[in-house]
Design goal:
With 176 residues, the chain is α+β, with helices and mostly antiparallel strands. The protein has one domain. The protein is 22% helix and 18% strand. The protein has a three-stranded antiparallel sheet with strand order 2-1-9, with no helix packed on it. It has a two-stranded antiparallel sheet with strand order 3-4. The protein is elongated, with a radius of gyration of 20 Å. The relative contact order is 0.23.
């Protein structure tokens, strides 16, 4: 039924309640048995999370082809794995030691569905390599040609029984 009162015949009706973005697909993360709050961490080069070892994630562009960033991310993760093999280490983690870096929302995108999700996403920083540019030429230089030894990545041998657990988070309740 339309506002005008006219009835519109339809073969199918699709109802939608809105898209709900979930970082890492909505999984919860623990490191060595401790909860890891992704919302308090900064994203490193759009690939890793500050303080979370051995996990790369893909989040494409919002202003260009998603796969352009996905390809760069995949290449970068392969470079990291090769470097870990070369160094004979089992762990790599991005570490921020610059206290002057400020945090802000992961994306500067004004769509309502994005704004509603930002509280569940990590942050971006005010300086490289913690800043997300959503810019292919910049990411090409950073990810394909940039040095791995940038002072932010820490490579090390595994110690003890370190573990990262990823488990599906409980479904979000519908907002009232």
């Amino acid at each position: 039924m339309l506002k005008s009162g006219k009835e519109l015949e339809a073969d199918i009706i699709v109802t939608a309640t809105g898209l709900m973005l979930k970082f890492l697909g909505g999984i919860s993360v623990t490191v060595d048995g401790e909860d890891f709050d992704v919302t308090e961490k900064m994203n490193y080069k759009g690939v890793m999370l500050e303080g979370l070892p051995n996990l790369g994630n893909t989040f494409g562009y919002t202003n260009a082809s998603w796969t352009l960033k996905a390809d760069l991310t995949s290449e970068y993760v392969c470079r990291l794995i090769k470097e870990m093999d070369r160094k004979r280490v089992q762990k790599v983690v991005a570490v921020n030691t610059d206290s002057s870096i400020t945090k802000s929302n992961f994306l500067d995108f004004q769509s309502g569905y994005v704004q509603r999700a930002m509280e569940r996403f990590p942050k971006k920083g005010s300086k490289m390599p913690w800043k997300l540019y959503q810019n292919y030429p910049i990411d090409l230089v950073l990810l394909r040609f940039g040095k791995l030894a940038d002072g932010k990545l820490r490579f090390s041998k595994a110690t003890g029984q370190a573990s990262i657990a990823l488990k599906k988070a409980s479904p979000l309740k519908k907002a009232s």
